[in-house]
Amino acid sequence: MNRLEHLVNAKVELSYEYLEMAKYSSNPAYTGNLTQFLREKYVMHQPDLVITYRYPAAKFIVQYGERIFPGVPAILTMDEAEGVINTNLPLNYKAVIGIYDRKKAVNLILQAQPSTEKIYVVIGNAESEKKTLAEFSKEAASFAGQVQFIYINQLSVPQMLETIKTIDGNSVILYFSFMRDWSGNAFIASEVLQRIYREARVPIYGTYLRYLNEGAVGGYMASGKILAQKAVEVGHDALDGHIDSYPRVEKTLAAEYAFNWKELKRWGIDEARLPVGSKIEFRQRTAWESYRWYIVSGIFIVLLEAVLILGLIASRIKQRRTEVENQKLEAELAQLDRINLVGQMAAGIGHEIRNPMTTVRGYLQMFQRKGEFTNYQGQIDTMIEELDRANSIITEFLSLAKNKAVKMKLGNLNQVVLALFPLLQADAFRRGHQLYAEYGTIPDSEFDEKEIRQLILNLANNAFEAMENSGEVTIRTYMENERIVLAVRDTGTGISQDVLTKLGIPFVTTKEKGTGLGLPVCYRIAERHGAKISVDTGCQGTTFSVSFLLTNA
């Protein structure tokens, strides 16, 4: 992005779309639904340029790009091993193909570990992987007499992992990718590599730079960064209207020697044997003995501060409740006072708590990647999870701050709901519920998009949790009395009267693991936007309605 901004001498706004074709392409309806979703999402905000990464994305854009982004130039990037788009490209489409020299990958292994006798080649059975394997098999013939190649491809993942466990001695593993097994089941290549890493007793060399943090020692690795730099150059000319200055399909070298420092140390591979100019990542220079007291002290400080914070919160809430009772304030004012109290406290101490927590979490993550702490992975994972949970609570605290700055911009609530809908739909499906959206005709208004997203997510999550069995949640937008209304309705059993009178009070919750801050955050967001929240509940379900004043640009 920095390179493109430098070339165009202007700020560039990026949008990312993760197609997840490896997971869902076997569903016949997926590409159609995805195409329709993207078309509607960008119909009012067409980009100036589309850049794809990897072959599945390129193939998708060639097939459906003109329907989604009519007339928009596209730069298609992919590895030569994945395949080349054979279809005649539109005039405003260019393909940038990354060239990878597989012989260099083998020569690197023999240079780094001269005693290597066997190279176990792990690759899947997707069409592009079959092509790669066929080409590599021919190239491997030039190493006859130097090293033996053993191919692991006609196996299921469990069978492959069982084979991996048996590999030892002067052997290494060369991992290309594993997108499909012999029976056609789809996988994510980096996740398969992680599973191999947990079983392997010999070094693993990879062919893609992204494998460097997934268990690979390193190797001669295809680099998406190098490929992206070339794509940016072509894209810059496309934005200037000079896309014809490049051939329709351009090939470029896109690989580098890169290694993971901790894996080199784990397997005793001498850096002096690596090619000149090799990139060494993840250097570390300390061990558990050097940092254990920092961790113990940090955890103690966090726990002590947590106890003090809870005591302070309890004391201040009790004090405030007494003041409210003595002054006999109205229920709504008492509710806002409690929210203000927590918000003031959060603003005063929230950032100070995060500093030691961030330090502790950083050290824990560093130890998590060290081989010598393998026996402590369970404890380290638990500590990180607890720190993340504490951090999420602090984030909710900060959302209650009365003076929190909001960035009001002109937009449309329908677009916010539309953008969140796939995420919420996935959550509903996981819980066994159905999610629907009804988009009314509403005008643009001014709001803080991040806060409104949080408001919708909180109300939708409460609606999901209000239904024990399979139910339906509907998100609806409409106009009423010159106000824009956002309503979230569930089909649960309703809210009891004693709970209804306490809605919006911090820390009041009926959930076993809830913090009681979700609805208070919603009330605070509504207050900052000059909106009102109303509740309609009964045995057939509950509707939370947020009505916004109509604002103009």
Task: Outline the fold blueprint.
Layout: H1 2-8, H2 21-24, H3 28-42, E1 50-53, H4 55-68, E2 74-79, E3 93-99, H5 102-112, E4 118-123, H6 127-140, E5 148-152, H7 157-165, E6 171-177, H8 189-199, E7 204-206, E8 218-222, H9 224-239, E9 249-253, E10 255-260, H10 261-266, E11 279-281, H11 288-327, H12 331-368, H13 377-399, E12 409-411, H14 413-431, E13 434-439, E14 445-447, H15 449-465, E15 472-480, E16 483-490, H16 497-500, H17 518-528, E17 532-538, E18 541-549
Parallel strand pairs: 1-2, 2-3, 3-9, 4-5, 4-6, 6-7, 10-11, 13-15
Antiparallel strand pairs: 8-10, 12-14, 15-16, 16-18, 17-18
Would you give an account of this structure?
The strands form five sheets. The chain has a five-stranded mixed sheet. It has a four-stranded parallel sheet with strand order 1-2-3-9, sandwiched between helices. A four-stranded parallel sheet has the order 5-4-6-7, with helices on both faces. The chain has helices spanning 2-8, 21-24, 28-42, 55-68, 102-112, 127-140, 157-165, 189-199, 224-239, 261-266, 288-327, 331-368, 377-399, 413-431, 449-465, 497-500, 518-528; strands spanning 50-53, 74-79, 93-99, 118-123, 148-152, 171-177, 204-206, 218-222, 249-253, 255-260, 279-281, 409-411, 434-439, 445-447, 472-480, 483-490, 532-538, 541-549. Helix 6 links the parallel strand 4 and strand 5. The chain starts with a helix and ends with a strand. It is α/β, with parallel strands linked by helices. 30% of the residues are buried. Helix content is 47%, strand content 18%. The protein contains 17 helices and 18 strands.
